[in-house]
Amino acid sequence: MGIRRLGHVGLNVSDVDAWVDLFDRTLGVKARVEKYDDQEVTLLELDEFTYRLALYPSTDDAPRHIGWVVDDERELDRLSGRLEDAGHAVSDGTTAEARLRGATALRWFSDPVGYRVELVLGEAKLGRSPSRPPEATPGVTGLGHFVLASPRLGELRELYESVLEFKLTDYRAPGLYFLRCNATHHSLALAHADQVSIHHLEIEHGSLDDVGRALDRAQRNDAPISISLGRHMNDKAISFYLRNPSGFHLEIGFGGIEVDGDRTPHDFGVADVWGHHHADANPFATPAEA
Predict the structure, then answer these.
(1) What CA–CA distance (Å, rounded) separates 96 from 162?
(2) In the list 22, 160, 170, 193, which could disulfide-bond 149, CB 3.0-4.6 Å?
(3) Residue 287 is assigned to a structural domain of this protein
(4) Quick one: how far is CA 6 from the chain centroid?
(5) What is the pTM of this model?
(6) Cα dihedral: 99, 129, 61, 246 (round 10)
(7) How many domains does the chain have?
(8) Which among 87, 121, 155 is the end of a domain?
């Protein structure tokens, strides 16, 4: 498969300081600031790579770009051709954009809901280990997946499954689909909703103890826990969720399974093995779970 993994997410945010504070006090993740054109961009150090989650100061809160790492130049060209054949205009990123992301090449297009989707080659490293609390084992290890909700579910499935060659792992009727681009259970989930939004980003942790310690810190610091600790039925991950300053969820998780290429997609029925009680209405609940 040409796409190797989820590489980065950039967000326009109205309160950068609140984001930095939430990651610092709850997850032990530090931030650094980089210059980009005529503004400063705040980068959260999720792992050893320079660019995973980027915060751009803005008057509005909205996704700015979503980046996928591609295997090699040949695959970048092949996928660009598939996108253009499917009617998606593909453009080269600027030198400054590629440099900021630590990429040797960057191309982008707009998806059916208007989000900028990037395909990149290369991932530059920090040159040092990211800062973590002394008790981290190892703490936050990276960016796991995201869930994109939209009324244009069919077009998004066509893009990711038919054009970009993601594989369907499993689903919940009537409108929630989990897609993979590597052995990880899913790097992307697509959901039907009346409004376009990112439902959540998952911040991957290296141990169950790290998730527990993050939960302790969140409770101690009165962080907005939006979904309680629980275990998902389909990927078996144990996690809880925070409401971030831009209004959507951050999933704090560990233990998602890997799947092989022979997996048959199926409806996994019940959302959770246990836990994951929502502070607010669950937009993906079946009537029996609401």
Answers:
(1) 31
(2) 193
(3) no
(4) 7
(5) 0.96
(6) 170
(7) 2
(8) 121
Question: Do 156 and 248 fall into the same domain?
Answer: yes
pLDDT in tens, 133-178: 999 999 999 999 999 999 999 999 999 999 999 999 999 999 999 9
pLDDT band at 285 (very low <50, low <70, confident <90, very high): confident
Cis check for the bond before 174: say yes or no (omega within 30 of 0): yes
Interatomic CA distance for residues 144 and 184, integer angstroms: 9
Which residue range(s) make up the domain with 35? 3-121
Give the residue-averaged pLDDT of 187-210: 97
Whether 282 is in a domain gets the answer: no
> CA–CA separation, 214 vs 233, rounded Å?
22
DSSP output for 188-226: EEEEE-SS-EEEEEEEEES-HHHHHHHHHHHHHTT--EE
Tokens representing 278 are 């929502």
Same domain, 193 and 242: yes
Cβ pair 117, 3 in contact under 8 A: no
User: 109 and 224 share a domain?
Assistant: no
**The domain spanning residue 51 has which CATH number?**
3.10.180.10
